[in-house]
Amino acid sequence: MPASRNAVIVEDDPDTRDLIQLILTQSGFTTVLADDSDSAIEAIREHEPLLMTLDINIPGIDGFAVAKRVREFSQTYMIIITSLTEEIDIVRGFEAGADDYLVKPFRPRELRARADAMLRRVAFAAESERESPDASGPAPATAQPESWAAQAARELRDHLAVGIEGVVERPRHAAEAPAPTRDSATTPPAQPTPAAEPAPSDQVLRFGALTFDPAGGGAGLGGRRLDLTAAEAEILHSLMRTGRRVRSKADLVLTLRGQQYVTSHFVNEADKRAVDGHVAGLRRKLGDDESRFIETVRGVGYRMATEPG
Predict the structure, then answer these.
(1) Torsion of CA 125, 128, 130, 132, to 10 degrees
(2) Residue 184: CB atoms within 10 Å
(3) Beta strand spans in the chain (E)
(4) Residue 251 has pLDDT above 90, yes or no
(5) Whole-model pTM?
(6) Angle of helix 269-286 relative to helix 87-96, nearest 10 degrees?
(7) Cα(262)–Cα(251) distance, rounded to whole angstroms?
(8) Containing domain of residue 149, as a range?
(9) What is the domain count for the chain?
């Protein structure tokens, strides 16, 4: 992965493109713009970005097809940003290779938080303790007659011009504290809930014929290595570590972001549907049609099934 912080923005709407560029620039990225499928694929090949944002409805082939082509040669962190909200669209996005899915209209600080979370994971993987380049962040947009993206970009520029205090929370990398057991079917969304996990993170985990080796072996089933996306692997690892404890969807969202506490402000319904999409892809690769490995706890989230044998 290249050392430079390049980001490719694939968006044909000028207002939305301008907003995304402003947010990512404030996160320390050098941005490259593309407004159709051909220029998007060419930009990814040329600039090898750390991150790309991808609209679905763009000139040329659609964003789902672009994602599949990009995944043939690049492991860039891909965030689909679209107005498509149906579950089937979210699942298609992740199956095409997306790492994250954000629904328009979105809060500027929400995209900033996702970009910063991705940078923290990159820094951790490189064994670097560098902090994100800028602690200041944009404020949420309010509804105005002009387009939502143009309004958000204008307000963000105004705030930055007067030196507004940062709004993106950056949790310290402290030792995780044990989380309380949650077997209840209700999870109040606004109540802070530790997302810590009890098992050692470097331990090889086993569940019948399913194994997960976080030290580099990845996931395997019956001696066969599983080809999982980064998000699918992280969810599987997290669920196997906590076993029969019910993990809420909001908890799993923050696990993917590298954050620690559930807050209703940062976890919305689109985020939770994205987790459903990851789990659906994971189950398909596990051949888990009968919930032999992962159980759904209706209205709450997921947990591992009762271990066989």
Answers:
(1) -10
(2) 10
(3) 6-10, 30-34, 51-54, 77-82, 100-103, 205-207, 210-213, 218-221, 224-225, 247-248, 294-297, 301-304
(4) no
(5) 0.49
(6) 60
(7) 6
(8) 6-161
(9) 2
133 and 248 belong to one structural domain: no
**269 domain residue, yes or no:** yes
Q: Which residues contact 132 (CB under 8 A, 6 or more apart)?
A: 27, 28, 116, 119, 120, 170
Strand partners of residue 220: 211, 225
Q: How would you classify the pairing of strands 224-225 and 218-221? A: antiparallel
DSSP letters spanning 245-263:
S-EEHHHHHHHHHT--B--
**231 class by beta-carbon count within 10 Å (0-12 exposed, 13-18 middle, 19+ buried):** buried
283, 289 Cβ separation under 8 angstroms: yes
d(CA 182, CA 18): 43
CB 74 within 8 A of CB 48: yes
pLDDT tens per residue across span 115-125: 888 887 776 66
Residue 182 belongs to some domain of the structure: no
Let me know: does 138 contact 165? Beta carbons within 8 Å.
Answer: no
- Mean pLDDT, residues 57-61: 91
Record the tokens describing residue 3, joined without a space: 């050392």
Residues 6+ apart with CB under 8 A from 56: 62, 63, 64, 80, 82, 84, 89, 93
CB 225 within 8 A of CB 299: no
> Looking at the domain assignment, is residue 247 inside a domain?
yes
- 154, two tokens: 């204008």
